[in-house]
Q: What sequence folds into this?
């Protein structure tokens, strides 16, 4: 599948802002299943962006607006080719206890430094006793981790209500778990908190989901969404994606931007402003499929 | 029973009897004084208890003086109260020190190598070889992901390193804690050394104690080479509320560094700048005295709220050398301890020279079982990468609760057990006793290698703290003396760097690089000093009249009118009651807007913050005024004579402060902002008094005019000029229009205009505050006194009242313009909303 992804973020300030600084994680990653054909970021007022790679391999851009400005628009446009991921038989994966011991370096298997950052609860994936107990229902003794993760994903999908606005950007998993509500970010954090309570390597993935309009309706501009899901590590299959918001293993409809320990590592647009007063924010995302000729 | 003679008493006084089997610093196992202590022991014997007590007092005074000079209030003396006055140093032989030095310097190299391994590009050797478990690094939130994997990697991660070191009862040196994140306690070391070398001068000189000056000279050379000829060195501090501020301020002076706070720093084009009056100035080298988790709000939004956003980007680009690097807290405190021998072998190929006090990493299930087992009580559970804090939630008392906590968060904790420690002589209640002790030692990178200051700050460890091993928060402490060995170069420069450094630092601090924040502080210091003076003067006028008993001048209604220039209105009282109540409120009520309690408290805290920009003398004047205990006595009219004396004393201190500011402050930017603050406040004050006392013609006009003249200290000037009873037009001429009278409104506007014209401006045009001041001045210049004094049919002076109100509004606008134009930094950055929540995902 070929996509053109357009992600527009617009801030308006009540008063002119003297200065603002932004960290943008809007550049899609190359993966085994995803090729990035082109990608660019533009700011209005016109501002230089400078790229840097973080320790997880994501590309972030920093932008600093030093002139007074009443609004700021950030437009990221990328063309991405997405392939169907390989199919795994989850029951064939390693048992979760074995994965945990290898990740922690307490088995005879060689240590795997690349998974080390993703084993432990982070500030936004801190479990509590309730999350731990919830996870234990899926982590039956000896069960392959991927099978357990798939079960956990399905349970979160069934048990939680998808309610935009019920939670905030800094909502912690114990809070959204208590009310069994939230959006994709919360579901991903809940799943990560569950897995990391048992020291199982899992990471937060930020990206997009193409929405397919109901039969007979046309696609609405800007109606797509930025999205988040989880990837779980297995010693043989490496990282396998799970989308608890939709109870699916991400495939052709998912476009990957970046991954990290939790939302704070990969939030697509963040920053600071001096002055400016009240902010209003509008965001539009388009994930537009392209025919092979237009690409 | 025989009465012991004086010599016997002195000997007994000095007899030290170490506990069996415990290493004692001063006395060997055979009970004789160790060679390193011989000289000091003899000196103490000569001093006797009285001499030692006098030495202790002298030392206390010397410490207090250096402390007061930098720190707010009682916090000046640091964190440990009881151990402060001990003048007995810990004396270490050259052989002892050689062991400590070799061990600490190796540890500093180990810290650097470990940070490079963890933060450099590619998988580090420690994790890929399994030398350390992943949880030690990633189990907590100390690891700074945004500072990892840089290409090219940082040239260096550490420039300073401190260790808390103790000697066990068996005589071995051990490390109690590594100080890696934001050490910079050197200020305490230097201040402590200066105080001790002055108060205990004789043995200090005679014993040939090694000096610290050459150590810091070499560090300074390195910093100079990093900054380059035109570059700037800054020391980042948390400000005067930070308990380490004393050390930061002292060290900044010593190293000739600009003392900056996170809010002063901004990052543009991947370089770090400080906000000064003259615009942004690049910083080339920064010593970091605040924890890394609190800086760089762009990359660490959850924990960093205190400014310096994007600081890591400036380090990453190489434009800024930061000591120590962001992310170094991952090795702070006890993170190195559990695996130090293995890490030393893996990264340095060396045996660890200086081991740690017993320390178990609780991410390890076996270590958890030890703590949860029968011997659990011997261990103290503490955070891995920081000091325990009183704010930490208490550890669960029951075993199951503790097990649950350790299984959930074991990686972030250690179990420590402080071994039985060696003892050293201490002076306690006038007697010599022995106590277990530890010291902090200070290392810095000097270019090719590390250097350890041949000294330390020592503290008693309370034996009662048992397994807790509570390390005291170090401030001032016992000085550690290292004796010169036969192999040491004897001719170290004995002269302290301080004199040179202070002179140079003063030049830099007062140059054009005035930080916007400091300008803001000095401006408000000027305003608050003037406001305090106005209220004191007003009360002084009222009290003198009240005490005079003169029927006209002491008329209750008139007194109430005068005091109401500042006091808030109160209803339902007779004039006499109202006056009494207003005086009481102005002196004692903290909520009274112009009251002395509020004004003096703002004045003092402002002076503390602006302390480094005003003269030493000026600071003491303010401190004497504001810290006078009589302000807390609830004085009012019932003790009016006492109150009058207190007010006169206060006015004298303020006059001394103004004098010191005029005479001792070079006419730099700091002085200009102080002057602006004063002139704005005094101008507004004159306008307020004029309107209140002279806005209408009353039967008591003559007495009111005299009150105003007294308030303005201009009664004699008036008599000299007019030789007659006060007349409104003449008084208005002298106190409003006269540009030569320092108490006249026109004089304030003239000076304000002059100072404003000297401030930096961006274009060819006058800045708005300058135009505003000029407009006010011109308006006054176009008036004559008779017109001002003119009244309408209802005896109102409409022109005067309108003009005075206009002046007050205008001056307040000037103040706002100055704030916006020069102190805009004061507005803190706020986080932008997160898009993810607006989008549905």
A:
């Amino acid at each position: 599948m070929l996509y053109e992804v357009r992600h527009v973020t617009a801030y308006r300030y009540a008063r002119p802002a003297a200065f603002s600084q932004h960290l943008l994680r809007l550049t899609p990653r190359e993966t085994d299943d995803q090729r990035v054909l082109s990608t660019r970021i533009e700011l209005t007022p016109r501002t230089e962006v400078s790229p840097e790679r973080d320790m997880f391999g994501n590309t972030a851009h920093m932008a600093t607006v030093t002139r007074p400005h009443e609004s700021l628009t950030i437009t990221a446009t990328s063309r991405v080719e997405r392939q169907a991921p390989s199919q795994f038989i989850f029951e064939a994966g390693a048992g979760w206890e074995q994965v945990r011991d290898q990740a922690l370096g307490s088995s005879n298997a060689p240590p795997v430094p690349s998974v080390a950052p993703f084993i432990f609860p982070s500030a936004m994936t801190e479990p509590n006793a309730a999350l731990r107990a919830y996870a234990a229902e899926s982590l039956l003794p000896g069960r392959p981790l991927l099978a357990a993760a798939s079960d956990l994903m399905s349970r979160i999908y069934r048990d939680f209500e998808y309610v935009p606005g019920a939670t905030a950007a800094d909502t912690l998993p114990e809070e959204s778990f208590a009310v069994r509500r939230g959006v994709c970010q919360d579901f991903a954090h809940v799943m990560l908190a569950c897995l990391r309570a048992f020291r199982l390597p899992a990471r937060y993935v930020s990206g997009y989901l193409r929405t397919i309009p109901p039969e007979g309706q046309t696609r609405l501009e800007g109606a797509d969404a930025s999205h988040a899901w989880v990837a779980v590590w297995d010693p043989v299959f490496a990282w396998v994606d799970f989308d608890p918001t939709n109870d699916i293993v991400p495939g052709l409809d998912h476009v990957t931007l970046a991954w990290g320990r939790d939302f704070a590592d990969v939030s697509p647009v963040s920053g600071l402003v001096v002055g400016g007063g009240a902010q209003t924010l509008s965001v539009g995302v388009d994930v537009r499929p392209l025919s092979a000729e237009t690409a | 029973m025989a009465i012991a003679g004086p010599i016997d008493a002195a000997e007994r006084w000095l007899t030290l009897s170490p506990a069996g089997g415990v290493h004692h610093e001063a006395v060997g196992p055979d009970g004789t004084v160790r060679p390193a202590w011989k000289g000091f022991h003899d000196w103490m014997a000569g001093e006797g208890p009285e001499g030692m007590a006098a030495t202790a007092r002298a030392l206390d005074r010397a410490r207090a003086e250096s402390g007061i000079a930098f720190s707010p209030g009682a916090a000046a003396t640091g964190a440990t109260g009881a151990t402060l006055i001990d003048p007995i140093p810990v004396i270490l032989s050259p052989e002892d020190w050689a062991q400590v030095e070799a061990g600490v310097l190796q540890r500093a190299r180990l810290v650097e190598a470990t940070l490079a391994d963890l933060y450099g590009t590619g998988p580090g050797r420690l994790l890929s070889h399994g030398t350390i478990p992943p949880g030690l690094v990633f189990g907590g939130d100390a690891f700074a992901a945004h500072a990892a994997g840089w290409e090219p990697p940082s040239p260096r991660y550490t420039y300073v390193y401190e260790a808390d070191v103790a000697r066990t009862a068996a005589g071995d040196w051990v490390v109690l804690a590594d100080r890696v994140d934001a050490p910079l306690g050197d200020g305490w070391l230097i201040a402590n050394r200066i105080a001790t070398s002055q108060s205990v001068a004789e043995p200090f000189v005679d014993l040939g104690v090694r000096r610290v000056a050459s150590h810091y000279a070499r560090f300074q050379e390195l910093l100079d080479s990093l900054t380059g000829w035109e570059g700037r060195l800054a020391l980042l501090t948390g400000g005067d509320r930070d308990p380490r501020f004393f050390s930061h301020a002292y060290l900044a002076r010593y190293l000739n560094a600009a003392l900056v706070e996170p809010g002063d720093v901004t990052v543009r084009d991947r370089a770090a700048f400080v906000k000064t009056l003259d615009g942004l100035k690049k910083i080339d080298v920064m010593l970091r005295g605040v924890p890394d988790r609190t800086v760089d709000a762009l990359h660490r939004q959850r924990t960093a709220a205190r400014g310096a956003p994007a600081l890591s980007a400036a380090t990453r680009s190489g434009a800024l050398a930061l000591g120590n690097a962001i992310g170094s807290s991952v090795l702070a405190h006890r993170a190195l301890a559990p695996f130090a021998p293995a890490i030393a072998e893996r990264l340095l190929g060396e045996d660890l020279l200086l081991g740690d006090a017993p320390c178990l990493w609780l991410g390890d299930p076996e270590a958890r079982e030890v703590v949860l087992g029968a011997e659990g009580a011997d261990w103290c559970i503490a955070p891995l990468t920081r000091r325990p804090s009183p704010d930490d939630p208490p550890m669960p008392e029951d075993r199951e609760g503790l097990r649950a906590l350790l299984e959930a968060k074991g990686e972030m904790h250690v179990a420590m057990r402080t071994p039985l420690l060696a003892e050293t002589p201490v002076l306690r209640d006038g007697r010599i006793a022995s106590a277990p002790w530890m010291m902090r030692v200070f290392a810095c990178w000097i270019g090719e290698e590390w250097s350890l200051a041949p000294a330390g700050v020592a503290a008693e460890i309370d034996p009662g703290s048992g397994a807790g091993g509570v390390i005291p928060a170090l401030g001032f402490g016992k000085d550690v003396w290292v004796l010169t060995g036969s192999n040491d170069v004897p001719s170290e420069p004995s002269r302290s760097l301080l004199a040179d450094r202070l002179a140079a630092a003063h030049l830099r601090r007062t140059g054009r690089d005035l930080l916007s924040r400091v300008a803001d502080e000095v401006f408000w210091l000027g305003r608050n000093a003037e406001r305090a003076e106005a209220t004191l003067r007003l009360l002084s006028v009222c009290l003198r009249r009240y005490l005079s008993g003169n029927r006209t001048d002491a008329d209750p209604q008139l007194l109430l009118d005068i005091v109401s220039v500042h006091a808030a209105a109160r209803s339902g009282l007779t004039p006499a009651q109202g006056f009494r109540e207003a005086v009481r409120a102005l002196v004692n009520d903290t909520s009274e807007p112009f009251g002395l309690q509020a004004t003096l408290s703002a004045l003092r805290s402002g002076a503390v913050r602006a302390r480094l920009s005003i003269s030493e003398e000026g600071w003491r004047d303010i401190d004497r005024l504001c810290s006078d205990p009589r302000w807390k006595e609830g004085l009012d009219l019932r003790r009016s004579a006492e109150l009058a004396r207190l007010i006169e004393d206060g006015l004298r201190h303020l006059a001394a402060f103004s004098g010191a500011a005029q005479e001792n402050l070079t006419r730099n930017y700091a002085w200009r902002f102080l002057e602006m603050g004063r002139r704005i406040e005094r101008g507004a004050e004159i306008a307020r008094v004029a309107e209140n006392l002279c806005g209408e013609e009353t039967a008591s006009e003559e007495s009111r005019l005299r009150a105003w003249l007294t308030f303005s200290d201009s009664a004699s000037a008036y008599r000299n000029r007019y030789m007659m009873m006060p007349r409104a037009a003449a008084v208005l001429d002298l106190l409003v229009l006269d540009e030569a009278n320092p108490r006249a409104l026109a004089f304030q506007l003239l000076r304000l205009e002059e100072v404003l014209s000297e401030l930096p401006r961006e274009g060819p045009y006058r800045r708005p505050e300058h135009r505003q001041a000029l407009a006010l001045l011109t308006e006054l210049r176009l008036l004559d006194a008779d017109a001002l004094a003119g009244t309408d049919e209802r005896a109102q002076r409409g022109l005067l009242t309108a003009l005075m109100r206009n002046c007050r509004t205008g001056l307040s606008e000037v103040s706002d313009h100055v704030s916006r134009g020069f102190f805009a930094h004061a507005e803190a950055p706020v986080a932008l909303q997160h898009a993810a929540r607006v989008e549905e995902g």
